[in-house]
Design brief:
By secondary structure, the chain is mostly helical. The protein folds into 2 domains: about 90 residues, no CATH class; about 80 residues, no CATH class. It is about 65% helix and about 10% strand. The chain is built from 10 helices and 4 strands; from the N terminus they run ββββαααααααααα. A hairpin with a 2-residue loop joins β1 and β2.
Length: about 220
């Protein structure tokens, strides 16, 4: 428990905490994900330190270094982002900074080299686009569940609150905003699972990320 407070309830000692860990993620009572993100950054840095040692020792080629980033480091920063990513959390400067630093080390180039050059050289996008893709992919998967399952009932209620009450704080509200951002209004309106939908979402987000990259390069 974190910052636990002792309270007396019916003669018994009760502890109240402002955060707790569940399924490897830190949940905070105020709705913030700052503690979880700090934990992710710390863990990613530890793994990056090992990768740096191997790169300096000449043990990792560019392709091997990229594989380490994709398979061992980036997933740490993306864990649970399908849930916590929102308007407030979508811009995660610390994570983007880590990616830029790692990619330059992989390419063995100086720190002064523009980050977009490293992204283009290795065929990657900013992490925020990755989080959008994960979020919408998870949303599409939710649609595959039957209406009587618990997870689908929770989603249906979240969608109802967003549609009927214009509640901007439910999980579905940000999901709908992302779909509109990427021009997928029809997908949101249909609200039906489609096996091909995941590929379409991935393609649309990649094209958007590439346009933004081209604009920055110019």
């Amino acid at each position: 428990m974190n910052k636990a407070l002792d309270m007396r309830y019916r003669g018994q000692s009760v502890q109240v905490t402002d955060s707790y860990k569940y399924l490897g993620m830190w949940f905070q009572s105020n709705g913030s994900w700052d503690k979880e993100k700090k934990s992710r950054i710390k863990k990613a840095k530890r793994r990056m330190a090992v990768a740096y040692m191997l790169i300096r020792a000449g043990k990792l080629s560019v392709q091997d270094g990229l594989a380490v980033w994709r398979g061992l480091i980036r997933p740490v920063l993306e864990y649970g982002s399908e849930i916590w990513c929102s308007d407030r959390n979508n811009v995660w400067i610390e994570a983007e900074r880590l990616q830029r630093k790692m990619l330059k080390r992989i390419l063995r180039c100086p720190n002064r080299m523009p980050a977009d050059v490293a992204l283009g050289e290795l065929g990657l996008t900013e992490l925020r686009h990755r989080r959008d893709q994960l979020r919408l992919g998870f949303w599409n998967k939710l649609l595959s569940y039957k209406n009587d399952t618990l997870i689908r009932r929770v989603y249906n209620e979240s969608r109802r609150r967003h549609m009927d009450e214009q509640n901007k704080h439910v999980w579905t509200a940000y999901t709908a905003k992302l779909l509109r951002k990427y021009g997928l209004h029809d997908v949101w309106a249909d609200n039906v699972y489609d096996m091909q939908q995941k590929s379409r979402i991935k393609l649309v987000i990649h094209e958007c990320a590439e346009r933004e990259w081209q604009s920055r390069i110019k």
